[in-house]
Amino acid sequence: MSASVHRPGCPLCDSAGGRLVFQGRRLRVIHADEAGFPAFYRVVWNDHVAEWSDLSADERALCMEAVAVVERCLRDALAPTKINLAALGNMVAHLHWHVIARFEWDNRFPSPVWAAEQRAGDPQREQAVAFGLPALEREMIRHLATGGF
Length: 149
Description:
The protein has a single domain, classed as HIT family, subunit A (2-Layer Sandwich). Helix content is 32%, strand content 19%. It has four helices and five strands, in the order H-E-E-E-H-E-E-H-H.
C-alpha cells in the first residue's frame, strides 16, 4: 500500500489483518482466526477508505465480485447452511467485507457470529471444516488471480 492511502494506527493498513490468502492490486482476502468459525474470511480493500461510497462504481463492482468469488468457493467446497456477509466497520473503520460460512451446528447459529453462544462448540466438526480449507483456498486463489483484483 502506498503512503497516500495508509492510515497509521489502522490495523488493516498496518498489517494484512489475518492470514493472507490472496493479495491483489486493489484488494486482498484474508482468513480470520475467529474461534468457532473455521471458514471466516475477509475481503479487505487495500486503500484506506472507511465507507462503501468512498469507492467508485467500478471499484464497488470489483469489490463485490471478489466477495462473490469467496462466497461461491465456500459454498462449493463446504455446503454451509448459510453464508453471512457483513461490512460493519464499527471497530475497524477500514472498508472490509466479512464472508463467513455458517453451519446449523455452530455455537451461535442462527444468530450473528457476534451474538452470545447458544450451545457448546463442536471442535470435531470445526476441525473437519478447517481440514478442507487449503483446497478451498487454492480454488479461491485460482479464481481471484484471473479477476483483475
